[in-house]
Amino acid sequence: MVEPLAARAQPPEIPVISGEPELMPLRRERAMAHARPGLAPWQVSLAKQMMSRDMSRAIAVTDLAIQCRLSLSHFTRAFANTVGVSPYAWFVQRRLQHAETLLNETSLPIAEIALECGFADQAHFTRAFAKAFGIPPARWRRELYSV
Question: Per the domain annotation, does 71 fall within a domain?
């Protein structure tokens, strides 16, 4: 004999403790975790290490995905979910941080810094640096030494 729907046992209510947010049902929590893939700590570390190894050379995101044992699209989405920016954006930020260090700590010409940090030329570096820091690298360096 089949029981009517109303007579079937319902899952127990989860009590809400005052001051704490309501707990999410387990199924929805699993679905949300699946909807926003993330990288394991070893994958984040490996990808960042590979990108930081040599700033002067471009690295293919495909190579990062292969090393992390993921498809390109899954890796790109998971990296962005985990780190907060795309792999390419993280790489450009890292290059600009390296350039800032070289500007502050060396007397290398700006064109040489541009090439060492993987930019195509000084103009490309100047545009990227000015967009990130609000002033061109030559003025950055002038203002650093004028203080």
Answer: yes
